[in-house]
Amino acid sequence: MKKTKRQLSLKDIQRVSLDILKDVHAFCISNGINYSLAYGTMLGAVRHKGFIPWDDDIDIIMPRPDYERFKKSFKSSKGNVLVTEDESYIAFSRVCDTQRTMTGKSLWPWSKKELGLWIDIFPLDAVENDKQMFHDKIQRLESLSTKQIKARNAKVCPSMSFGVIQNLKQLVKNVIYLNLDIKKINNTIIDEATRTHWDDSSECSQLVCGTSIKEFYSKSLFSKTVLMPFEDSEFCVAEGWDTFLKSNYGDYMKLPPEEDREQHTSFVKFYWK
User: Fold this and answer.
1) CA-to-CA distance for 190 and 125, rounded, in angstroms?
2) Which pLDDT tens digit goes with each residue over 198-230?
3) What is the DSSP code (8-state) at residue 223?
4) pTM above 0.70?
5) Can you count the helices (H) and strands (E) in the chain?
């Protein structure tokens, strides 16, 4: 008799994600690697002292030099697996729990490693001090990102949860992107993001995912971190957290309307092994 897969609930996702974060935090502290909670995870720490109640993912950021050191040296004490740009379809890294959780393989046909529930790790890259040059860079990256997303979607295997007509429509819609080389697009995104050396500018930005002209920061915001409560632990948050949150969310202490309280990984289901 075939075993029925048990899907992780929101609370399950938050609990396993927190375990991965604790593992990453311990490694970074032991090895002098600078990281910070970011985006909704940072906002959760500040506003809720833990997860935003409806949030289902964890994001952290690292200055590019720390990010590269992390990629080369990360060893999990809990059996978690690092999946880098070279092993996946994205221009950043993830640490995955593959011992307890899994995703549907058909959703990631191009990934070289088995994926389980993950946390995202984004690099911060130096950018030109000139804002017009920064805006031009953002436009180039947005164009590349659009190609990357369409190429990824075109290669997703047909889903049994879709009807035949819906799958055929998706195939026709994406057929022109089937031959795009995702790896080549990823490399181009990384080349563009790292064009300015970290030591050659006083400004930085997160450039490899969801790039925005709002994210034009002084590197000094991230040079030091403080420990901030998050659920049952404490994690590193950039000293410039207020500026970061205002840039991304405006009045960040105000709760969004209920219709805007979206889960970020709603496109993928996670299951217990």
Assistant:
1) 10
2) 999 999 999 999 888 999 999 999 999 999 999
3) S
4) yes
5) 7, 11
